[in-house]
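Dear Dr. V.,

Thank you for agreeing to look over these. As mentioned in my earlier message, I'm a first-year student in the group and I'm still getting used to reading structure tokens, so any feedback on how I've presented them would be very welcome. I ran two proteins. I've put each sequence directly above its structure. The first is here:
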Amino acid sequence: MRNIKLIIEYDGTNYAGWQVQPNGVSIQETMETALGALLKGPVRLHSSGRTDAGVHARGMVATFSTDSMVPLRAFSDGLNSLLPPDIAVASSEEVPLEFHPRFDARGKHYRYSLYRGGRRSPLARLCAWHVRGELDLAAMREAAKLMVGEHDFASFRTAGCAAKTTVRRIDAVDVGEEGGFLRVDVRGSGFLRNMVRMMVGTLVEVGRGRRTPEAVALLLSHPGSSSAGPTAPPHGLCLEEVYY
């Protein structure tokens, strides 16, 4: 038996998220269908996590078991020939049977993109949140630094989050400018449901002067005492990399 690890890139615009579900076509379902056609039988993918509807990925990690001896190239080039244009396998490799993409992960890197132009951009509309008006970047960076470290992020999750603990370790939150875009790069050991999007929504409120960095510190020191900012739209979020 072989354990094959895939790095998958996808545009999540037209999908109901990563996980197979009854209310729409998912990335996982599309991948498993293509793998089944390639290997002439059902295949089950195990991923490093889930992404919601509309969220993108450059580095989703997934594995599957097979007794097929087809060359590794078939799981990248061959599989890509069966996948739609908005999903692709960036790389494939054989890993030890005990490797698990979720339980062995040490951390993840998400990037959230905000478009800063005064007018809407047709080219940016599917991959960035269009935020008009001035933003106080110094205040946003000050608030971002307060999010780094181990904190109780209970105020930064949406309903339906089934996590047993809301304590998470955040290694970095960087707010950077790139052309007409603002990039928020978040690296950490793990994340609650919609946590990154709520972090970004809170930072935007700080940038607009509707919330102070001190108010963000209060959210972390007294979780549940008040609510975080709005959940940023899903299309600005991309899973960049999973660390092992």
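The second protein is here, in the same arrangement:
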Amino acid sequence: MDTESNNKKASKDDKMEKQPEADKMVKAIGDFGKWQVMLLLLIVAPTKISSAWQQLGIVFLAPATTFMCTETNLTDSIQISTCYSDCVSYEYYSEFENTIISEFGLICDRAWMANFTQTMCMFGVLIGSIVFGFVADRFGRRPALLIACMLQLVTTVVEAFCYNYWLFTTVRFFIGVSTAGTILSSFILIMEVIGPLRREFMNCLCALPMPVGQMLMPLFAYYLRTWNQFCLGVGIPHVLYLIYFFMLPESPRWLISVGRIEEASKVMTQAARWNNLPSGNMLDVAKSMASEKVNSNEPIRKATYLDLLKTRLLRINIFCSCTIWFVLGISYYGSNQYIGQTSSNVFVTVALAGVLQFPGILLSGFLCKYFGRKITMISFFVVCGGSNAFLVVPEDWFAVRLTMGAIGVGCASGAFATMYMYTSELFPTVARNMAMGASSTVSRVGSMLAPYVAGMTVIAAWLPPVAFAVVPILGAITCFFLPETRGQKLSDHLS
């Protein structure tokens, strides 16, 4: 009996030893309480919902549109959706009263400009990731988020009043910049106040509001049938961002890292009170955390991007990671835009694609926990590619196209959620942020190309579904070269 008791005690001690060293801040403010839930609902949910509206809104701004020449000087016979050099004016036919295609005449030799608008928006997201990443590290998470939110509020309202194409596209670029800032800054802030045991759970919660936004977007488009009404409809809710000036806290970890100890203690005191924890000694806790950084005798190794190529393992990991993120950029954003253009009911299709992202995101957490990251990514990619392949069926097969297109988007969403966690585990601490940044940047390149892949229907109707079927398979093959990271301790240093 004593032996069994000793074995249980030893086993318990071993588990305790395997756990990471207690985080003083987590012990002080709680790992996941009412304060963290408040931040999730106040910051992450609105910014992620808005990001869906801004990044995927092109589906309703530039939907599938047919046109016909109504006034010509020379041509006798007129065919629908055919361009004529002598045509004086065209009429446009779509589900909407007015779109950017009909407003700015984006047909014939100007047809590429509709896709270019979305490309510029995604290029803005790329630039915004770089700019606001720097701002958040240099000046704080709160200023970065406030600037991004105010920029988004202004640009989304101004967008509805743009009177020409190039002004509209320029505003879309800055909308992309602001969208990157809101997503990045809010994600950094929420993850810095969450305990390590809850971070995977929080990763799923942070991903869920985006499909919620996608599900709400068709409601705006259904009742607001002109492009400027739609822009204004999804822009006005950003007025809620004004409350951030009064309720948004700064990250206490960032405050401590820059020596603003008293400010950090005030935020921690507020958090502890929200979570019903003792709050009397927060200044001492903050000073203790600061002293650990100051008194540390360990040499600080500042890694560079070149260190990601230092060893064979890191070279393989960064190459594969960037390839997979590129695939995700094309698959997720391209599929969303394509199914919106080819469906006979764009409202149902977009909403259903949002609904199916819920099981994809939740399934990613389950599969990662029990089967590992690698098999999860491969499974999502294979199903995504297979589903997209069915989009080559005739347009009359509406149910098949609708179901398979939505499943493909759901799998791409689940793969995205998985890859965020997988990438962070593939690289050591000193180079993890750079690896995430490099991978995310490549993903934005993929998302910039996505509209052109979706627009290849003008060449041949079968080209986009074939491309969206082949690209995920490339991602699945790439996953085979990555190691499994489930259950493994995160590495800290470059080997």
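From my reading of the second output: The CA atoms of residues 43 and 490 lie 28 Å apart. Residues 312-342 form the longest helix (31 residues). Does that match how you would interpret it?

Kind regards,
E.
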